[in-house]
Amino acid sequence: MESSVKSKIEHYCAYQERCHFDVKNKLNKLGIFGDQLDEYICYLIDENYLSETRYSEAYVRGKYNNNNWGRVKIKMELKSRNISEWNINNALNQITEEDYENKLYEICEKQIQNADDSQTEVRNRIIRRLTQKGWEMDLIIKCLNRLIK
User: Fold this and answer.
1) Which of 17, 29, 30, 39 has its CA 20 to 30 A from that of 129?
2) CA Rg value for the chain
3) pTM assigned to the model
4) Rounded to an integer, what distance in angstroms lies between the CA atom of residue 107 and that of residue 141?
């Protein structure tokens, strides 16, 4: 293994959690392919620089807490990065059902307070925004029915 590439990829993984997909792309940009690429990936896993479980848990926390994403979008994004179904489900289990519904309620409440349009327009806008952010339609409707009479 080349020491300059090794130190670059170590720094890349130490800076923030990465998944195998991101690391493979980075190594490809650095000119590493095939068996050599697998050798670097194994090294990073052995030295605990790379962990898909840790990555998926951090990803779920970040997107849920900071970006207000719902489970659907988080799951879709993790699948696009070739994260295993087990890791996805394990990471999503960090979010309790009660916490999930409370967060949705808070988001809906805030969006209703900031709206000046008719109830139907507000309702449709909130549904559109939240489904784009990966929240389940049935939960959105249930929440809005509680808030908008």
Assistant:
1) 17
2) 20
3) 0.93
4) 13
Position 14: which residue type?
A
C-alpha 96 chain-centroid distance: 16
- At position 140, the amino acid (one-letter code) is I
| pLDDT tens-digit profile, the chain (149 residues) | 888 999 999 999 999 999 999 999 999 999 999 999 999 999 999 999 999 999 999 999 999 999 999 999 999 999 999 999 999 999 999 999 999 999 999 999 999 998 888 888 999 999 999 999 999 999 999 999 998 87
Name the residue among 99, 90, 88 with its Cα closest to residue 65. 99
Q: CB neighbours of 68 closer than 8 A, spacing ≥ 6?
A: 103, 107, 133
In contact, 103 and 70? CB cutoff 8 Å: no
